[in-house]
């Protein structure tokens, strides 16, 4: 079960935060990059990435789930037809947050949140290779542990017999 | 209501305020334009971060 967010909501109430994040997500998908406060950008990132994950599945059920949050049909259409296919090979991490310093007036830390570019062929290859080596290391460790466990168990039995 | 019993001396006031200082912002040279900028924040003069253009200048 997902853990509820602790602390104050953006905008004061849960309903206001929901609307605010939905509007930010809509603007992000519409323009590709938006400038906002760092706190809002950090809260927006998981919301937007979940919507993109739904868009990648691409079926009518997921489209209706996305439409519950983003009510603008044209934005949802671009999300499903243009943004989602771009991230076909990317396993998450569809947005990038860059800090741009504090705002004049209230000194609030600002950030740019943007949709990242599609993976190039070279990037995809390195990603797959890294994943493969990680898997290999994990399997090797698991094997080593299993053999150690057997070795530990054998002498213990011998001592009992003696 | 709790209130101060004695007037605070000028000496005590000034000792307290002598600790009231502003910290210098640590700055590094921008990779691209070598202007001083804050660490982990896009360069305000050339608008790049990690050699990627973030801001329009």
| Strand percent estimate of chain A | 5-15%
Distance between the termini of chain B: 56 Å
* Number of helical stretches of at least 4 residues of chain A: 5
Order of helices and strands of chain A: HEHHHEEH
Biggest sheet, spatial arrangement of strands of chain B? 1-2
Percentage of residues in helical conformation of chain B: 10-25%
Largest interface: A-B, 5 and 9 residues
Number of distinct beta strands of chain B: 4
Mean pLDDT across the residues of chain A is 89
How far apart the termini of chain A lie comes to: 51 Å
Silhouette of chain B: rod-shaped
Structural class of chain B: alpha+beta
How would a textbook summarize the main sheet of chain B?
2 strands, antiparallel
Contiguous uncertain segments of 5+ residues of chain A: none
The helix count of chain B comes to: 1
Strand order of the largest sheet of chain A: 1-3-2
Shape of chain A: extended
Identify low-pLDDT runs of chain B: none
* Biggest sheet record of chain A: 3 strands, antiparallel
Question: If you compute it from the alpha carbons, what radius of gyration of chain B comes out, rounded to the nearest whole angstrom?
Answer: 22 Å
